[in-house]
Amino acid sequence: MRHLFERPIPRQPAVETAVFRRNGMVSVILALAALSPSVVMGQAATAEPPAAVDAAPVAEKDAKSVGKPTKKKSALIAHITLAGSLADGVGQGGLLADVSPHLHRIIERLDKAATDPRVKGVVLTIESPAIGRGRAEELRAAIGRIRKAGKPVAAHLIGGDPVHYMVAAACDTVAMPPAATLEITGVRTEVTFFKAMLDQIGVDAEILQVGEFKGAGEPLTRTSMSPQLRAQYEQFVGDLYEQLVEGIATDRKLPVDEVRSLIDTGVFTPEAAVEAKLIDAVAYEDELISGLAGRLKIDEPKVAHDYAEQKLDNDFSGIGGLVKLVELLSGQKQAAAAGKDKQIAIIYLTGEIKEGKGKDELLGGGSAGSESVIKAIRDAAKDDKVAAIVLRIDSPGGSALASDLIWREAERTNKPVVASLSDTAASGGYYVAVAADKIVAAPGSLTGSIGVVGGKIAVGKALEKYGVHTDVVAKGRNAGWLSMQTPFTDHEREVFLATMKDVYRLFTSKVASGRKMDMEKLATLAEGRVFTGRMARELGLVDRLGTLEDAVDEAKKLAGIGEDEAIERVLLPEPRGLFDDLFGMAGEVAPVARLASAGGRGVVARDALVRAAILARLAGLPGLEGLAAEAETLIQLSSGRPLMMLPMRVQVR
Fold it and tell me: Does residue 71 carry a catalytic annotation?
């Protein structure tokens, strides 16, 4: 078995470890080399005191200190758990900040550990957080800042899929509990198709697209990927695979060919992973902490479990408790910046882009509303303290109109704007990004998808099967173009496609202008093609590869702020209260309920009847669960409005 802590942190000596089995349990006993604590902590040891020291004052000082107990500062091992959605976005403030923490809160806690003089080492427990490659890169960068501060970071990897392993591999040491499984099986993307099921119930999905590779509607109109959609997925999946291979080879100091072979094996027990040098040890969390303490020569380590986490006071007894509960449920704003430093506004655009107000749900998810994002941009633009704006984008796109309105507000502001691309910034998300002065993407960000899609779903034949007949009285050649009773007529389809082509013209012209690219070159990058951040950088669609920190650095440069000059960060838009998250805003209902309810465009009674009929007919059919999970996107696709978005479900593992 490979020993714990065999891999040294930067500029630190290797540590020897012996592992023994006693009574069937693994005991980790560390035998450190006879090194001074200063060397163990990565500090330079001085061979002799400076020659200019005056001995008399020193002796006098020593004499005064005789008999006085020395106060020893406590040494901490910080423990932080990575679990849950870890969504991008502002999230709740105050005591609710860590109930279901957003990514920026975890990064803040990791950065605090890097600068806290009491913290000598960090243990990360990685429990299958729901993150993509962009957010994984943010965590890797924060781990790197801790290591750069001379503090070892040990990962306890419980959920071991490729993205989780990427985070763990950034640490000095990786350990797994005996019953865990390491899964570095490569990269896989899935798109679920519903056409055959819709055909069974007589539903016609009328989805049009502008862009040969713009396959957002294919899950409703085909039973498998078109050659064009498959070709682009093969490209970005191939690049994500190469990034995985290169990352493991670099982090674990393994030959590239050997890493490819290991990925083809794919699934490892912890013992096999140690043999393959993919992890360092098999250990429980307490053993990992003991091992780290031994390396740091801390006899009785003080472990700060859930380091820097806000503790929620759950005593709601009495009148005072009732008042406290109401205050919590009403939501708490982020703490206002109080210093005199210049400010950078970080404006989050997360989830599907829609018109109106957005949602930032407590338990993850939500949507980016044009009204909310525009207000945040305007507030930052008129605030004299704000020197620059960073748009943090994690969105597959959505409404073309909403995307265009946000683009306009970002483009017209007189302050520097930098776009930071997270896991996904495609279609409408990328449309907004091109308004920025600079675009920074993670190597694994999914971006591009320059194209337009839209249409409607006709369910008239499905209703007829159940004795539901609709009579129509209309005047006007295209009066029924958004009717859910019948498919498009040839003329209706022509009219709708013309609007989509005009939106596509806007999209391509704004990308060409924002990226300073001629239309001929852009034509080879548009048509709905999707790229990784690394591919997009090579093609000129983004300016730099990096994290949110790198985007902030770019914003400082554009604002004329010195590299070492301190700044304050303002996070926008302000989060909604917990009441909204639990019970929804006025008039809002759950996505699946909206399918079966009135609302939106068209005749209320018709929508209610049609959607109720769909759900009733789908009950018990294979595919219902998947289709219901895509209810929000289904409503968008059937709205009859041009959309800029990725396919309904794209799972990249």
Answer: no
